[in-house]
Amino acid sequence: MLRALMYILPLALTIYAFIDCLNTPEDEAKHLPKLAWVFIILLFWVVGPIVWFAAGKMRHAPAGGRTPSEWHRNHRTQWVAPDDNPDFLKSLKDENKKDEAVLKDWEADLRRREDELKKREQGGEGDKS
After folding, report:
1. Same domain, yes or no, for 94 and 127?
2. 57 has which bridge partners?
3. Per the CB 3.0–4.6 Å rule, which of 32, 70, 76, 81 could disulfide with 66?
4. Are residues 5 and 42 in the same domain?
5. Measured between alpha carbons, how far is 37 from 45 in angstroms, rounded to an integer?
6. Tell me, what's the pLDDT at 32?
7. In sequence order, what DSSP letters do the residues of 55-117 get, joined into one string?
8. 55 is in which domain, residue-wise?
9. What's the farthest any 2 CA atoms get from each other in the chain?
10. Keyword Protein transport on this protein (predicted)?
11. pLDDT of residue 108
12. 51 and 99, same structural domain?
């Protein structure tokens, strides 16, 4: 298994880097033209992808200059626990009412079927004796 992994992992990394390089706009390829990066990735298939990820592509922060983690730190919403949220509790009560109605219908149907079976058994026993 390890022997296969020694060949599969670099091959997978090469394929991923090749596709990433092809999908990268020309102006985001650093230091060399994009075509040169494609040849580096394919010719040096063990180290080429690592070099591409390390030095070949511009990595920049999203628009606004902040990373997602910085945005989340500054824009936290007030979180309410479910047992303190009146809308959630109301939805539970509504669901509970629906479940109770289904349960009552099921119990009534069950009682009706039991009564029918008792009547059949009593009618059948009366004929046999």
Report:
1. yes
2. 29
3. 70
4. yes
5. 12
6. 87
7. IIB---PPTTS--HHHHHHHSPPPP--GGG-HHHHHHHHHHHHHHHHHHHHHHHHHHHHHHHH
8. 1-59
9. 103
10. no
11. 95
12. no
The reported pLDDT for the residue numbered 123 is 82
d(CA 59, CA 24): 11
**15, 48: one domain:** yes
pLDDT for 62: 54
**Does 18 map to a domain?**
yes
Is 70 inside a domain boundary?
no
User: What is the model's pTM?
Assistant: 0.45
What are the helix and strand counts (H, E) for the chain?
5, 0
87 assigned to some structural domain: yes
Is residue 73 within 8 A of residue 65, CB to CB? The reply is: no
pLDDT of residue 82: 74
Q: Are 60 and 73 in contact (CB under 8 A)?
A: no
Segments of the chain scoring below 70 in pLDDT: 59-80, 125-129
Bridge partner list, 52: none
State how many domains the chain has: 2
Q: How far apart are CA 61 and CA 122, in angstroms?
A: 82
